[in-house]
Amino acid sequence: PPEQKSGYQSNMEGIQTESVPDRYILSQNHPNPFNPTTDIHYGLSKDAHVVLKVYDVLGREVSTLVSETQIAGYKTVSFDASLLPSGVYFYRLSAGSLSGQAGKFSAIKKMLLVQ
């Protein structure tokens, strides 16, 4: 399974508390350009079913990095593209409400693989 980390910050007593963003966030991967691995960071403002996929420039799916229900917080997923050719790729994060109510988030970012 992909590596996932939650973000933490200290409160005034120095106790570690999990931080939760106030909205859904999809950040630019780092490093970019990359060879052959990169980290993708995102944040969930509430518990959600999350799907994170990578596509090639023609729109073909090349990898599903996440497809599960996750708790709110900051997340990091590593993407290993060592078996893919150099080029432009896109990653798409979709996060849907667990209650079935309106509130689906979707965002796409571009990344460059240089082998």
Short summary of the structure?
The chain is about 0% helix and about 55% strand. It is mainly beta and about 120 residues long.
Radius of gyration: 15 Å
Broad structural category: mainly beta
Give the end-to-end Cα distance, rounded to a whole number of Å. Answer: 24 Å
**Total of helices:** 0
Tell me what you see in this structure.
By secondary structure, the chain is mostly beta strands. 0% of the residues lie in helices and 55% in strands. A 4-stranded antiparallel sheet has the order 6-5-8-9, with no helix packed on it. Strand 1 and strand 2 (16-18) form a beta hairpin. It starts with 7 loop residues before the first strand and ends with a strand. The model is unreliable at 1-12 (pLDDT under 50).
Please specify the SSE layout and strand pairing.
Elements: E1 8-10, E2 16-18, E3 25-26, E4 37-44, E5 48-56, E6 61-70, E7 73-80, E8 87-97, E9 105-113
Antiparallel strand pairs: 1-2, 3-4, 4-7, 5-6, 5-8, 8-9
Structure keywords:
four-stranded antiparallel beta sheet; mainly beta; elongated; 115 residues
